[in-house]
Amino acid sequence: MVLLLLIFIVSEIIVNPSGNFPLNDDWSYAKTVLIFIKEGDIFIGTWCAMTLASHVLWGFLFTKIFGFSFLSLRVSTLVSSLIGLFVLNQLVIKISGNKLFAFAACLVLLFNPLYFNLSNTFMTDVNFNTWMLLGFYFACLFFEQRKPIYFFMVFFMSMVLVLNRQFGLMLPLGFMVACVFSGERRWLNTGLAFVGVLLVFTGFKWYEAYLAQGLPSWSSYKFSGSIKPTDGELLKKVWYFIELRSLPLLLNLLIYVSPLCLLLLKGVSKKFSTKTNVLIALSVITLCVYLFYSVNYPTGNVFNNAGLGPETFSGNMTTHTYLASLEWAFMFAKLVLSSVSGFVLLLYLALFIKERKLRKGLQVNPLVLTIAFYSLGYLALLYLSDSFFDRYFIPLISCSILFLSFLVKEQSGRLTAAIPLLLVFAYVSVFGTKDYFTMNEKRWEAVAYLRNEKQIPLDKINAGFEVCCWNDGIYSWFVEYDKTEKYDYLVQYEPTTSFTLFKEYEFQRYFPYKKDKINIFVRDSIN
Question: Which of 22, 122, 169, 423 could disulfide-pair with 27, CB 3.0 to 4.6 Å?
Answer without folding.
Answer: 22
